[in-house]
Amino acid sequence: YKINSRLIKLLLNNDFLPVITPPAITKEGEIVNTDSDLAISAMVKSLKIRTIISLFEAPGFLRDVNDRTSLISKIDKNQLPNLLKYARGRMKKKVLGAVKAFEAGVDRIYWGDGRRQQPIKKLLDGQGTIISQRGLDHERL
Prior knowledge:
Elements: H1 5-13, H2 36-47, E1 51-56, E2 61-62, E3 71-72, E4 74-76, H3 80-83, H4 91-104, E5 108-113, H5 119-124, E6 129-132
Parallel strand pairs: 1-5, 4-6
Antiparallel strand pairs: 2-3, 5-6
Helix pairs in contact: 2-4
């Protein structure tokens, strides 16, 4: 991945909040899902990102993808490799991307449901999954 850090910093320094997603479209104009998690981990180092908010189609990380009550709300970054045994489908890429983001210097990652009203506010209020350094009460995996 090549990151245009200069452009992103220019936007931030002029009070713009860039919402970054790797765009992908077929020749027919259909949106294609991309591996934004690895792209984000590549941005962490060049932009000195400390916090990542990732919204998707689930309430956060589910121990059992078929059970919404199996949400793991707080995870120590060192526990990420243990999540792979619970991760299904694209969630495996999210876990691997999170590992790389922490290796690149991120301090905290929020995962939550982007289909809700005010998804970022709810996520920051604790309605989702927070992955961080030691210091929070983390669930045992």
